[in-house]
User: Fold this.
Amino acid sequence: MKKAQIIVDADNSALVMTKAFYKKACVFGSTEYYALRKAQAENEGFGVEFQYRVSGKETYTGLKFKRMAEYIQTQPDAEARMLEFEAVKKIAKAKGAMYPLTKKWFFATYPQFKEDEIGDSEKTKAVSDEKAMAEANTKAEAKAKAEAKAKAEAEKKIASIINSQNSDEELDSAVGF
Assistant:
């Protein structure tokens, strides 16, 4: 038995069909053309509406391996989870379904990713990462300043030795030879 191609919606005074069916019905002489003409003749004044399929499946546009890895890096115990993530990808690739199996593992491991809110563990990790980055930057800046100061002092010492026209031994000892 063939599936109904035209649905008569008397409440809304509409003939409901898919776009694919309507496209075929636009071809004069086709079976779909005659079916639509018959439905219009029997239901005068009814308009044509298109039926859209509503899938219960959630989609995550843009969820690539890179985005998964970035999210994992924001979580506590990120290093261990990244190793696990890479292992899952390798096993999933061997099974011939790299993306779907990895995505399934990702959502099982991080169900909070589906939520629109940022969880407490995510906030804690993000704040601690920000603090660590700030501390690292401060330490790097302090180290760079100390090196620059030491270099400037060494250059002053060498310049003073050269200007005083002292012996090569003093120059070698100032440079550190």
Summary: The chain has a mean pLDDT of 82. The chain is about 60% helix and 5% strand. The longest strand covers residues 14-17. The chain has three domains: 7-50, 65-117, 122-174.
